[in-house]
């Protein structure tokens, strides 16, 4: 009988560590981007899947790109 592989879910702190970003930046992106939602909850912890990590990385890179252009849109 084949076994099901459980999805890898990680916390905001783990995402910050993986991306090499301060936790407050990751939490800001999670709070302000409505399309980034937790995949599950464990008590009070929000758990995110790999697609959420990719979206968070993208949003942080976009913030950095806007900041490096001097804020011009």
3D architecture notes:
The chain contains three helices and two strands. The protein is mainly alpha-helical and 73 residues long. The protein has one domain. A hairpin with a 2-residue loop joins strand 1 and strand 2. The longest helix has 19 residues.
What are the key terms here?
mainly alpha, two-stranded antiparallel sheet, 3 helices
Quick summary:
This protein has helices spanning 12-19, 23-32, 50-68; strands spanning 40-42, 45-47. With 73 residues, the chain is mainly alpha-helical.
Q: pLDDT average, as an integer?
A: 91
Calculate Rg over CA atoms: 14 Å
Count of individual domains: 1
Distance between the termini: 55 Å
Percent strand: 5-15%
Helix proportion: 40-55%
Q: Give, in spatial order, the strands making up the sheet with the most strands.
A: 1-2
Question: H/E order of the elements?
Answer: HHEEH
Total DSSP helices: 3
Broad structural category: mainly alpha
Largest sheet descriptor: 2 strands, antiparallel
Please state the overall shape, judged from the principal axes of the Cα atoms.
Answer: elongated
In terms of topology, how is this protein built?
Layout: H1 12-19, H2 23-32, E1 40-42, E2 45-47, H3 50-68
Antiparallel strand pairs: 1-2
Helix pairs in contact: 1-2
């Amino acid at each position: 009988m084949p076994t099901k592989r459980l999805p890898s879910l990680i916390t905001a702190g783990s995402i910050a560590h993986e991306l090499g970003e301060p936790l407050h930046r990751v939490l800001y992106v999670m709070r302000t981007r409505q399309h980034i939602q937790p995949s599950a909850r464990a008590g009070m912890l929000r758990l995110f899947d790999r697609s959420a990590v990719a979206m968070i990385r993208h949003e942080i890179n976009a913030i950095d790109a806007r900041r490096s252009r001097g804020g011009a849109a």
